Backbone:
């Protein structure tokens, strides 16, 4: 190959590179400005005593982290977040799977089911919160009214620390299960029909087919849904803030809400940055775990 | 067959992209021009933030409109944000960023969390005196609420105490009205409980409506009213532990649980339910803020209002004030600052219409006016202005603050009868001590 050709190729690659950068520039600029820079600045802030009013701006070393590790409210809200994640992820995966299986069975008016299960996901969190605040109302709420009609004692949905988180989970499941449902349904519809035909010829019944064909084929989708769901649940804030504001007695305060309160109503931005990086570390562990799991699967 | 249209007759992709970019640019230019529209019309725009919604918001808007009409060179543009945390976080952020509104309303109890950090500018009382507003224009406790470190940081529009409304029909049937049609004076807890039970017998539902579930402000209002009626103090000094009267606090909590027995009052009522219950005639008395007055007038029930009876010796009522503040400006525009003074003076002098919303005007000439003396039942609780108690002062206290959230967190279970008063109270004081031990961020 003559050097002239190489030169020309090089020039072309450079030009392509330039075009590539130009096209991704809008994204990269936003990414740097609104993600990378805030993260770096946040790390810096977590080592300062910075407050909203500008008092105590100096560096404090690891004092914020030390305080956070000894802060019972931090641990409690972190515990609440993990608790919510566990008790919300399980129904959000299982119910989505059940709904998808039902719809995929070939029920009549499939579009109507699909629409009904997915529609709540399109609502704003504020709307969902209002719905459930009213339905859970101890005196006027429809849920206790209906329970009363069948002779069940009223449940203090949002007032009992032991019940409140479950009430949030019920609202969350109703609101967001549609997304997981849609992922499952799409995956089910992608399972080749021949598998089922072959299985029927071999005499496998409906349940056998579900457990031996459908579920294994859904494996990768399940991993994806579980990971997405864990990450989404860990970030819970909106519906809790709007329905219970973290109550009763802090029983539903999530770590994100604690970060918000420490920073914006308690003014301690530096300390709140430290807490958010502790939380970030937790999310990193989950994400790394996911990568590790995926590797093992594909290996 | 007709030839296909010539390739160049349509728009090329490049032309479309260029045109689109030009349109976008034009749109940006247009919006930024529209941003200057206010000044182009000749009137100076004064940004005013407040947290008054519902009936209060409508009254405030009417007052602003009146001032705007009277002063054509100034156009006050209000921004209403949701009460509590959403409002205060945004106001603090705007002030910290140096571009806050020219004028804002805060609760007087929140001043200690804003003024020392430089988020607020002090009022120049010489300027205010030139507009006819002086220290003597305010009742003493209200004036004191705006003072901090020798500066005047807020000028109160009102005081809005926690009071008792009562259904006059129910009270009459229970034999609790005196000759003038007002509730007979009650000055000890046992008589009060007895009166509530008698009213319960009349309504058949409850004697008292009081909602507090998940509402720290409501729990605090009643608790602090009773606590101050014992003449007990609460002092919160950073760096020291909280100075409280533990025995009195526990007595107050015990008294409240006596009220919440599902007979006198609902065991676990929330705010909205309590409003609905009293408005529907389901109870004889209602513990609430004066701001619910218009709701009850609209409900059309026969009712009157008074300060909560002095059950423990010292007349006292929890209250707060909506107060005007000057958020700190990085680039102070003297003209606008002076217009802000004009605006506040005008609103204070016209605050008789604010009294219609139930609040007690802070500006004394209005309270002493003949128009005010005709307002019923406002005049029946106007004496509250002399016995009001604001939150104990600290950077974290005040209406809609974390302090009230913490109170709810530790005391709600006491109210609900799930926890002993001393357990809940001690946990709350522990929390205060933790906060007081931390460096003051303001």
Residues:
């Amino acid at each position: 190959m003559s050097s002239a050709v190489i030169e020309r190729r090089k020039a072309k690659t450079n030009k392509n590179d330039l075009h590539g950068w130009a096209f991704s520039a809008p994204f990269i600029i936003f990414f740097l400005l609104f993600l990378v820079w805030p993260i770096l600045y946040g790390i810096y802030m977590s080592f300062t005593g910075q407050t909203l009013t500008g008092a105590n701006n100096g560096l404090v070393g690891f004092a914020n982290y030390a305080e956070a590790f000894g802060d019972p409210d931090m641990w409690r809200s972190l515990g609440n977040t993990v608790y919510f994640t566990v008790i919300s992820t399980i129904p959000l995966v299982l119910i989505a799977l059940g709904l998808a299986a039902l719809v995929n069975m070939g029920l009549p008016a499939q579009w109507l089911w699909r629409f009904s299960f997915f529609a709540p996901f399109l609502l704003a969190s504020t709307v969902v919160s209002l719905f459930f605040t009213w339905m859970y109302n101890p005196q006027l709420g429809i849920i206790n009214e209906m329970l009363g009609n069948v002779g069940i004692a009223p449940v203090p949905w949002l007032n009992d620390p032991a019940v409140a988180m479950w009430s949030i989970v019920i609202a969350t499941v109703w609101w967001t299960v549609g997304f997981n449902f849609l992922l499952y349904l799409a995956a089910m519809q992608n399972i080749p029909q021949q598998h089922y035909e072959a299985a029927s010829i071999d005499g496998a019944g409906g349940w056998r087919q579900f457990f031996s064909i459908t579920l294994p084929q859904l494996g990768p989708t399940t991993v994806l849904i579980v990971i997405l769901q864990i990450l989404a649940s860990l970030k819970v804030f909106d519906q809790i803030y709007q329905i219970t504001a973290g109550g009763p007695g802090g029983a539903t305060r999530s770590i994100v809400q604690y970060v918000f309160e420490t920073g914006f109503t308690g003014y301690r931005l530096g300390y709140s940055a430290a807490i958010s990086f502790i939380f970030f570390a937790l999310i990193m562990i989950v994400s790394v775990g996911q990568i590790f799991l995926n590797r093992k699967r594909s290996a | 067959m007709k030839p296909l249209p010539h390739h160049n007759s349509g728009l090329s992709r490049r032309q479309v992209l260029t045109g689109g970019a030009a349109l976008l640019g034009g749109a940006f230019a247009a919006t930024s021009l529209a941003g200057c529209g206010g000044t182009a019309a000749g009137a100076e725009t004064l940004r005013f933030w407040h947290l008054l919604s519902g009936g209060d918001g409508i009254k405030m808007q009417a007052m602003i409109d009146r001032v705007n009409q009277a002063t054509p060179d100034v156009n006050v543009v209000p921004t209403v944000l949701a009460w509590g945390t959403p409002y205060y976080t945004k106001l603090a952020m705007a002030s910290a960023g140096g571009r806050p509104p020219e004028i804002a309303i805060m609760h007087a109890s929140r001043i200690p969390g804003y003024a020392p950090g430089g988020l607020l500018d002090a009022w120049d009382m010489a300027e205010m005196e030139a507009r006819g507003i002086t220290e003597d224009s305010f009742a003493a406790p209200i004036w004191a609420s705006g003072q901090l470190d020798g500066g005047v940081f807020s000028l109160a529009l009102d005081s809005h105490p926690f009071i008792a409304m009562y259904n006059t029909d129910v009270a009459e049937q229970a034999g609790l009205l005196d000759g003038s049609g007002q509730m007979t004076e009650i000055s000890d807890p046992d008589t009060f409980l007895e009166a509530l039970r008698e009213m319960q017998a009349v309504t058949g539902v409850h004697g008292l409506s009081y909602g507090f579930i998940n509402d720290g402000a409501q729990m605090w209002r009643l608790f602090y009213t009773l606590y101050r009626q014992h003449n007990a103090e609460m002092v919160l000094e950073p760096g020291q532990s909280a100075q409280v009267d533990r025995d009195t606090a526990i007595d107050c909590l015990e008294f409240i649980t006596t009220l919440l027995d599902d007979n006198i009052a609902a065991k676990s009522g929330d705010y909205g339910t309590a409003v609905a219950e009293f408005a529907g005639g389901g109870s004889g008395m209602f513990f609430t803020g004066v701001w619910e007055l218009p709701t009850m007038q609209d409900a059309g029930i026969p009712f009157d209002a008074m300060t909560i009876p002095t059950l423990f010796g010292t007349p006292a009522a929890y209250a707060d004030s909506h107060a005007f503040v000057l958020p700190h400006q990085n680039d102070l525009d003297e003209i606008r600052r002076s217009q802000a003074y004009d605006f506040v003076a005008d609103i204070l002098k016209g605050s008789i219409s604010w009294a219609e919303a139930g609040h007690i005007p802070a500006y004394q000439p209005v309270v002493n006016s003949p128009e005010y003396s005709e307002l019923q039942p406002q005049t029946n609780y106007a004496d509250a202005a002399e016995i009001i108690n604001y939150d104990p002062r600290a950077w974290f206290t005040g209406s809609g603050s974390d302090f009230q959230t913490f109170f709810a967190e530790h005391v709600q279970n006491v109210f609900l009868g799930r926890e002993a008063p001393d357990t809940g109270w001690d946990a709350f004081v522990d929390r205060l001590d933790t906060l007081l031990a931390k460096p003051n961020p303001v």
User: Anything to note?
Assistant: Chain A has two domains: 1-46, 63-298. Chain A touches chain B through 28 residues (CB under 8 Å). The longest helix of chain A spans residues 3-45.
